[in-house]
Design a protein that fits this description.
Distance between the termini of chain A: 35 Å
Helix content of chain A: 55-70%
Oligomer: heterodimer
C-alpha cells in the first residue's frame, strides 16, 4: 500500500469516496434525513387523526402519506441506518482496513438519494403518488394505481439493488477480511447478526424485485400475473410480497439485536451471557423467517392446514427470540450496571420490544387474528417492534459509538433527556392504539367513530412530543461532532470490549492497515 | 493482496448468482402457485377441461345414494356492463352424474364486448372434485350489441367427494376484457383489464 493519506478535500470526498467510514457517515446522515421526512408524514397522519372527521387532508392525500411514511421509514430510515453502522463498525470490529468491495460500496450508497428523491416526488405527479399502502397489494397497485406507480416501481428496484450490493459487500468483508486470529466464533455479535442479515437480504430482496417487476408487466405489457380476468390471481401478489416481507422484518430487527448485544455487556461490565446460543438463535430466526409469511394473510381463505401450519411456525419464532431476551437480561443480572444513554436505549429496547413481541404472539393465533387483522392493534404491534425496537437500537448505537467516531463525548444530560422524552412519549403514542384496535378501529382510514376520539387524541399528543424530542438527538449529534463536552480516550466506556476500542478516537482514515495483534482479540464466551 | 482481491471477486460473483437465482425464484412462484392451487384446490379454482369418457365411466352412478346440491352464483367484476347470471339457481345431482346447466349473459353496452368468466368454488375442498366437461369459462365469450347469449356448463361431481360435503356453491365472476383484447390480435392468451 502507498503512504498513509487522509480524505480528499471538499465535496469530492463524499461523491467519490470508497472509504468505509465516509460511506458509513453518508448512510447515517441519509437515514436521519429520511427519518425526519418519514416523521413529517407521520405527524400529518397524527394531525388528521387528532380529531374525528376529515380536517386537513383529503383521503387520497392521506393514503399517500401512510404509503410514503411506511416506505420511507422502512427503506429510507431503518435499513440505511443499520447499513451505515455496518459500514462504520464491521471493518473496525474484525480488524480489516476497509470494506472488501469499496467501489461497489460507493455505488450502493449513491443510488439511494436518487431512489428516495424519485419516490417522494411522485406525490407531485398527476394523479398523485403511491396511495396503496406500503404493502402495495394488487390490484390496488396495478389496475387502480395512479400513473406514478411506474416511478415507484423504479425506485423500489433501485433501493433493492442498493441493499443487495450492500449485503454482498458485507458478506465478502466478513468472510474474507477478518484479521488473523479472528475466528467466526470470536466475532462480536453485531458482526454475526449482520452476516446473517446480509444473507437474508440477498435471498429476500430479489423476491421484492420480482414482485414489482410482475406489477410493471401487468400495468404496461398486458400480462395477468395478478389479474383474475386473465387467469392470474391477486392473492399470488400477497404470497410473493410476504415471502419477501417477512424476512424483511428480520432484516430490520437482527442488526438491532446485534447492537444491543454490544451495549448490554459494556454497561453491565460482564461478558454477554450465552454468546453461542445468541449466534444460533439469530440463525434460527433467519431460517424460520422464510416459512411463516402467510401469517400476514390469515384472512385470504387458506385451508385449515395452511392456517395451522403458519400459526405454529410463527409461534416457534418466539423460542429463539425468547432465548435472546433471556440472554440480555441474564447479561445484566448481578452486573455492575451504569445507566449512560446507550444503556438506557438498550433497556428501553428490551422492555418495549418484548411488548411488541407479545402482541406479535397474539397476532400469530390464527382465530384471534381474524379479529385483530388490519386493525390499529396491528399498527401498535409493528410500531412497538420498529420504533422502540429498531429505532431505539439505532439511536443507542449512535450514542454508544459517537465518541469513537468523533473523538468527542456527547452531552450526557441531553442524551438522557432525549431518551426519557422518547420513552414516555412513544408509549403515550402507541399504547392506546392497542385498545383502539381491539375496539375495532381499522388501520389506514383517515376518519373514525366518535367512540375512538379520546384515545386518538392522546395518541396524537404522544406522537407530536415524540417527533419534537428527536430534534434533541440532532442537536446532540451536531454538538458532539463540533467538540461535545471534551475529548475522549480510545476507550471511552470502561466496560467496552473489542478491536474497535483499540483504535484511536477518532479512528485513523484506514482502520487496520496492518492486522491487529491476535492477542488483542477478546474471547467472547 | 492480488490473491485477496480475486478471492473477494469470486465470492461476490457467487453471491450475485444467489441473487439472480432468487429473482428467478420469484417468477417460478407463479407456476408453483398454480400447481399448488390445482393440487389442493386452494382459492376455489376449478381444474381445466376433462373428457366425457371420464364422466360417462360412471356407470355405477346408480350406486351413489348421496345427493349433492350445487348452487350457481354470478358476479360482475368492476364495471362490467353485462346482465349475467345462471338460468337455474341450483340443481341436485348424484356424484358421477353428468349435468348440463346454462348461464345467461346480455350485453348492455352499445358495442361488441369480449368477456371472460372466472370460477370460484366454495367450500374450497370441493373445488378439485367439481369436474367440467365443457364450460364457457374455458375461453373468451364475445357478445354482440344487445346479444343475449346462453352459455353452457357441463360437469359432474367426482365420486371421491368427501362425505361431509353436501352442498357446493359455484360462482362465476364476469370480466369485461374488451379494451385489452382490441390492442393485440391474434390472441394467444387471456389478458387482464387495465382501464385505470
Amino acid at each position: 500500500m502507498g503512504e498513509h493519506h487522509g480524505p480528499a478535500k471538499g465535496i469530492t470526498r463524499w461523491l467519490y469516496s470508497t472509504n468505509h467510514k465516509d460511506i458509513g457517515t453518508l448512510y447515517l446522515w441519509l437515514s436521519l434525513i429520511m427519518f425526519f421526512m418519514g416523521g413529517v408524514y407521520a405527524m400529518c397522519i397524527r394531525l388528521e387523526l387528532l380529531q374525528p372527521g376529515i380536517q386537513y387532508f383529503d383521503p387520497s392525500l392521506y393514503n399517500q402519506f401512510i404509503t410514503l411514511h411506511g416506505l420511507i421509514m422502512v427503506f429510507g430510515a431503518v435499513m440505511p441506518a443499520f447499513v451505515g453502522l455496518a459500514n462504520w463498525m464491521i471493518p473496525m470490529m474484525i480488524g480489516a482496513p476497509d470494506m472488501a468491495l469499496p467501489r461497489m460500496n460507493n455505488w450502493s450508497f449513491w443510488i439511494l438519494p436518487f431512489a428516495f428523491s424519485m419516490l417522494s416526488l411522485t406525490t407531485l405527479m398527476p394523479g398523485g403518488g403511491p396511495n396503496f399502502g406500503w404493502t402495495f397489494y394488487a390490484p390496488l397497485s396495478t389496475t387502480f394505481a395512479p400513473p406514478s406507480t411506474t416511478f415507484f416501481i423504479f425506485a423500489v428496484h433501485m433501493m433493492g439493488a442498493s441493499s443487495i450490493m450492500g449485503a454482498i459487500n458485507i458478506i465478502v468483508t466478513i468472510l474474507n477480511l477478518r484479521a488473523p486470529g479472528m475466528t467466526l466464533m470470536k466475532m462480536p455479535l453485531f458482526v454475526w447478526t449482520w452476516l446473517i442479515t446480509a444473507f437474508l437480504l440477498i435471498a429476500a430482496m430479489p423476491i421484492l424485485a420480482g414482485a414489482v417487476t410482475m406489477m410493471l408487466f401487468d400495468i404496461h405489457f398486458g400480462t395477468s400475473f395478478f389479474s383474475a380476468a386473465g387467469g392470474g390471481d391477486p392473492v399470488l401478489f400477497q404470497h410473493v410480497f410476504w415471502f419477501f416481507g417477512h424476512p424483511e422484518v428480520y432484516i430490520i430487527i437482527l442488526p438491532a439485536f446485534g447492537v444491543v448485544s454490544q451495549i448490554f455487556p459494556t454497561f453491565s461490565r460482564k461478558p454477554l451471557f450465552g454468546y453461542v446460543s445468541m449466534v444460533y438463535a439469530t440463525a434460527a430466526i433467519a431460517i424460520l423467517s422464510f416459512i411463516v409469511w402467510a401469517h400476514h394473510m390469515f384472512l385470504v381463505g387458506m385451508p385449515f392446514v395452511g392456517e395451522a401450519f403458519f400459526m405454529y411456525a410463527t409461534m416457534l419464532i418466539a423460542i429463539p427470540t425468547g432465548v435472546k431476551v433471556f440472554n440480555w437480561m441474564t447479561t445484566m443480572f448481578k452486573g455492575a450496571i451504569t445507566f449512560e444513554t446507550p444503556m438506557l436505549f438498550a433497556i428501553g429496547f428490551l422492555v418495549l420490544f418484548t411488548c411488541g413481541g407479545f402482541t406479535g404472539l397474539m397476532l400469530a393465533i390464527g382465530p384471534a387474528d381474524f379479529q385483530y387483522h388490519d386493525s390499529y392493534f396491528v399498527v401498535a404491534h409493528f410500531h412497538y417492534v420498529l420504533v422502540p425496537g429498531a429505532i431505539f437500537s439505532a439511536m443507542g448505537a449512535t450514542y454508544y459509538w459517537l465518541p469513537k467516531w468523533t473523538g468527542n463525548m456527547y452531552n450526557e444530560t441531553l442524551g438522557k433527556v432525549h431518551f426519557w422524552l422518547s420513552f414516555v412519549s412513544i408509549n403515550v403514542l402507541f399504547f392506546p392504539q392497542h385498545f383502539l384496535g381491539l375496539a375495532g378501529m381499522p388501520r389506514r382510514i383517515p376518519d373514525y367513530a366518535l367512540a375512538f376520539a379520546d384515545f386518538n387524541f392522546l395518541s396524537s399528543i404522544g406522537g407530536f412530543v415524540y417527533g419534537a424530542s428527536q430534534l434533541i438527538f440532532v442537536y446532540v449529534v451536531i454538538q458532539c461532532i463540533r467538540g461535545g463536552t471534551g475529548k475522549v480516550s480510545e476507550k471511552p466506556w470502561d466496560g467496552a470490549v473489542g478491536l474497535e476500542w483499540t483504535l484511536s478516537s477518532p479512528p485513523p482514515y484506514h482502520s487496520f492497515s496492518t492486522p491487529p495483534d491476535p492477542k488483542l482479540i477478546p474471547d467472547l464466551h | 493482496m492480488e490473491e485477496k482481491t480475486s478471492n473477494n471477486k469470486k465470492l461476490a460473483f457467487k453471491l450475485t448468482s444467489v441473487v439472480v437465482l432468487m429473482f428467478g425464484f420469484a417468477f417460478a412462484m407463479v407456476p408453483l402457485y398454480d400447481v399448488f392451487c390445482e393440487v389442493t384446490g386452494l382459492n376455489g379454482k376449478t381444474g381445466g377441461q376433462v373428457s366425457v369418457d371420464e364422466g360417462s365411466s360412471s356407470t355405477k352412478a346408480d350406486e351413489e345414494v348421496r345427493e349433492i346440491k350445487v348452487q350457481f352464483l354470478a358476479m360482475n367484476n368492476e364495471n362490467a356492463q353485462v346482465d349475467f347470471g345462471p338460468v337455474q339457481s341450483s340443481v341436485v345431482v348424484k356424484p358421477g352424474e353428468v349435468t348440463e346447466v346454462y348461464y345467461k349473459a346480455v350485453n348492455l353496452t352499445n358495442s361488441i364486448m369480449t368477456t371472460q368468466s372466472v370460477p370460484s368454488v366454495s367450500p374450497l375442498q370441493a373445488a378439485e372434485f367439481l369436474k367440467k366437461i365443457e364450460c364457457f369459462c374455458f375461453k373468451n365469450q364475445t357478445l354482440a350489441v344487445g346479444e343475449e347469449k346462453l352459455m353452457p356448463l357441463r360437469f359432474y361431481i367426482d365420486k371421491e367427494l368427501p362425505e361431509e360435503i353436501t352442498k357446493i356453491s359455484l360462482n362465476y365472476t364476469i370480466f369485461d376484457i374488451t379494451e385489452v383484447k382490441e390492442g393485440d390480435e391474434p390472441v394467444h392468451q387471456e389478458h387482464s383489464t387495465h382501464q385505470s
